[in-house]
Design brief:
With 252 residues, the chain is of the alpha/beta class. It has ten helices and nine strands.
Length: 252
């Protein structure tokens, strides 16, 4: 089927047949070309293909320009790996001009593979007349649009908690934050709080992953709605109190 579409130049023929009809403007994504397409790209691309084909069948002319995201962390991360850059101080020493030039050199390195993969699942999209976010015309249009939004009072400043990369000094998307998720052992300590006036010398047990806060602790608290157990450590001849639900962990 793909071979037949190539022989009759199906996509461009369809665009010619719909010339002069009301235009349905569609700009792709855009994805980064510094890596191969993954499931997320293909799933989203399928939906985009359905939308644009439907618009065409409804009587629109739909030029479907593919786009490339040339800015941001994925490209900078690749450059840092290639040149073994580990800090913002090193980037500043290299200089913005040289660093940007390195980024431009790799930004389209997987573009041919994208053409192949996108074509393989039958999506019609214009790769020849693509756009890149690093094009000056594109950047100027974005700033122009942002300026208009600002003039209309649609831009505001607020606060939001975001995953953050201390190495890159930048916020991360959820997918970036989850891409290297792993279980790690966190430093933790168990401390005792003697109960003043208790004839057995009973202590409350507390567990914390922030031991640096302990010097400022003056007391600990208990919850009247929870159950606690009083037990004896025969090896140390000490009596302790800990939460019933945590006993199986406490006794480990």
């Amino acid at each position: 089927m793909l071979k037949y579409w190539d022989e009759i130049d199906a996509f461009k023929t369809q665009l010619k047949l719909s010339e002069g009809k009301p235009e349905f403007t569609f700009y792709d994504g855009p994805p980064f070309a510094t890596g191969m397409p993954h499931y997320g790209h293909i799933a989203a691309g399928t939906i985009k293909d359905v939308v644009t084909r439907y618009a065409t069948m409804k009587g629109h002319h739909v030029p479907r320009r593919f786009g490339w995201d040339c800015h941001g962390l994925p490209i900078e991360y690749e450059i840092d790996k290639i040149h073994k850059i580990t800090s913002s101080v090193e980037r500043e020493a290299i200089g913005v001009k040289q660093y940007n030039e390195w980024c431009r050199e790799i930004v389209m390195r997987f573009s041919k593979d994208w053409r192949t993969v996108i074509g393989r699942f039958g999506r019609w999209v214009d790769f020849d007349n693509d756009y890149k976010t690093m094009d000056k015309e594109y950047m100027e249009s974005v700033w122009y649009t942002f300026g208009k939004m600002y003039e209309k009072g649609l831009v505001y400043k607020s606060l939001k908690i975001m995953p953050y990369s201390t190495g890159c000094n930048t916020p991360l998307s959820n997918s970036e934050a989850g891409s290297n998720y792993k279980d790690v052992s966190d430093p933790a300590v168990i401390v005792t709080f003697p109960i003043i006036g208790d004839k057995d010398g009973t202590c409350l047990i507390a567990w914390t992953t922030t031991p640096w806060t302990l010097p400022s602790n003056m007391a600990t608290a208990v919850n009247p709605k929870l159950d606690y157990c009083k037990w004896v450590d025969l090896d140390k001849d000490r009596t302790y109190i800990s939460m019933k639900e945590r006993m199986k962990y406490t006794l480990k």
